[in-house]
Amino acid sequence: MKALITGASSGLGADMARVLVEEGYEVILVARRKTKLEKLAKELGDKASIIIMDISSTYNCMQLYNKVKKEKIDILINNAGFGLFGEFSETNIDKELDMIDLNIKTVHTLTKLFLKDFKKRDKGYILNVASSAGFMPGPLMSTYYASKSYVLHLTEAINEELKKEKSNVSISVLCPGPVETEFNRVAGVSFSLKPMESMQVARYAIKKMFAEKLIIIPGIKVKLGVFATRLVPRKLLTKIVYKIQTKKLD
């Protein structure tokens, strides 16, 4: 089997690639950072190939799909994404629009393109990386939280369509809490909750993906937190999240 992984140069993307190669899969690694991708590919050996590409544009997503469509991809992992901290009225709009392009439009486009092929073959796995942030409003990281909510709800909707069609294609969404990756440096925050190790999350995600689990939430504390969001009134939840967010200032 062969997997395509976006945002594969570091963090969760790189660790999910390591897990899949350990299990005998070939991986195609996609990211912008050539040096890091080449280093990872060298580590993984002949099971790995790389594509240096910025997939934040729809045109490049189409180019990526056309480049690999003859490879008969079995697994698509939409991992590329980033966050940004700050009040909505003050954050940089260009960065926010770039985030919407990568966190939403790229996931949407690649999911649609590969899903069509998977449905024709009646097999395949899609793993979209969202966040526990997708279950709640996120003052001080409003665009990021909203983008992950989109990914979560899109995946849930597609899953229901596949189930109604009795399709053998599986789609899952990974919703971790804090993970020890480059995310906090890029977003400009530090976590109040101790982050989980990236490899631990990667192994759990791949295991649950193959088990066809729809919503994958690593860690008991994060599971309990997500469950609690269902019990708290939305206005109160927003106030709680704001207070938590203020503790993330680096």
CATH A-level architecture: 3-Layer(aba) Sandwich
Instruction: State the shape.
Output: globular
Q: Would you list the SSEs in sequence order as H and E? A: EHEHEHEHEHEHHEHH
CATH superfamily, please?
A: NAD(P)-binding Rossmann-like Domain
Helix percentage range: 40-55%
Q: Give the terminus-to-terminus CA distance.
A: 42 Å
Mean pLDDT: 93
Indicate the CATH topology: Rossmann fold
Q: Rg, please?
A: 17 Å
The total beta strand count reads: 7
Q: What is the number of helical segments per DSSP (H or I, 4+ residues)?
A: 9
List keywords for this structure.
Rossmann fold; seven-stranded parallel β-sheet; globular; single chain; 250 residues; alpha/beta
Describe the structure.
- This protein is an alpha/beta fold and 250 residues long.
- It is built from nine helices and seven strands.
- It has one domain (2-246): 3-Layer(aba) Sandwich (Rossmann fold), CATH 3.40.50.
- The longest helix is centred in the middle third of the chain and has 29 residues, at 93-121.
- The relative contact order is 0.13.
Quick recap:
This protein is α/β, with parallel strands linked by helices and 250 residues long. The protein contains nine helices and seven strands.
Give the SSE map.
Blueprint: E1 2-6, H1 11-22, E2 26-31, H2 34-44, E3 48-52, H3 58-68, E4 75-78, H4 93-121, E5 125-129, H5 142-164, E6 170-174, H6 183-187, H7 198-210, E7 215-216, H8 220-229, H9 234-246
